[in-house]
Amino acid sequence: MPELLAEALRRITHQKPDLLVVTGDILDVPYWLMYPPRVFAIDQPTLWRQAVEKDYRMVKQLLDDSGLRYTVLGGNHDLSEIMWQIFDPDENIFDLAGHRIVRFCDEEFDAHVPRRFLKERCRFDQVLADPSSPPQVHLQHYLLTPMMNESWPFTYGEGDELTRRVVESGRVRLCLSGHLHPGLEMARHGNTFFSVARGFTVYPHPWSIYDISPDGQVSRHEQTLSDLLTPPSRVVFLDRDGVINDLASYQTGPEEMRLIPGSAQAIRQLNQAGWKTVVITSQSAVGYGYVSEETVLSVHDKMCRLLAEQGACLDGIYFSTAAGDRAVLPQYRDQSGAKPNPTQLYSAQEELNLTLDGAWMVGDHRGDIVTACAAGVQPILVRSGAGRQTEQCSTDLPSGLVIVEDLAAAVQHILK
Predict the structure, then answer these.
(1) 34, 136, 231, 272: most buried by Cβ count inside 10 Å?
(2) Which CATH architecture is the domain 2-227 placed in?
(3) 3-state class of 412 per DSSP?
């Protein structure tokens, strides 16, 4: 993402916009840092907070280096207490190019519903009532309209009221939001245009250019980095527990994450040889009620840090929390996306621009082998983890199945 953002900023600079707006979720800060305490022991929280600050400073440096006039919004995934130490928290109203730019730094409240309270609501009242104001552009992370709170509360709890007042004021030309990452087509209510920009981090890495004409008309056109698309990459899919690490799936957090000797070096060799590496793992412990999804994410964070210490990196991690009939909550019953169904492999193929031609999958359970075969991927069984038991007890493994000691040996086979 840093390289892609730098390239996007380079292109945007050539277009000489009056203002660049980053509509929130600058980082995807883990919830266990944003809403402590949690039910597991946080491992190295200071390290994580230092990483958050480092990433914010990196983004700010890229924006500063572009030479563009910019403003940023905090999103529901941003850690405000660190973000606003690095970005300007006070530049909320300013005039630019014949318009008054108004930034609202709202937050989520009960049940994650965004609300406009306190000084943000007072600022809203102030600018709408100002008879001397030039045409206004309102910036907020969350949506004023349409009401989209069925699957997740994307829209303000008082969104209808905020929308009504904006439109009736006649002062606002554009309301720009960013919470709904797939974005929305621009809509017009009265003389006000409402737009939700698409998230930049998802291919084809889009950004939108808004032109406001002297008569108040707003046009939007989108640009992307799609021309940077390379041919689909070769991929090795990896199971997690028993292949990369020896961590048991149940009742453990990041403090128990340990790599199997040689696994980091093996992944680094795949990185160097140009293979993408994607983890496909079943974490049904969530569905069984032993751990939270946040625990799984924190374990993955720790695993990636341990790999990075040895120069190795993963290109993606996909996991299922399904537990079928043993699920403690209804949302964890559906197993259609879990191994041995190859759904996660297909998702990775689409989202990460992968080819399954010549792809491999390394695992220690029968389900890993069945998943690979279902997707037309070549399986390898390792004897680490539960692999030796799988080798001895499974009577229906495919003939000619490659069986090796561990991930290091599997990678040597693949590279040959």
Answers:
(1) 136
(2) 4-Layer Sandwich (3.60)
(3) helix
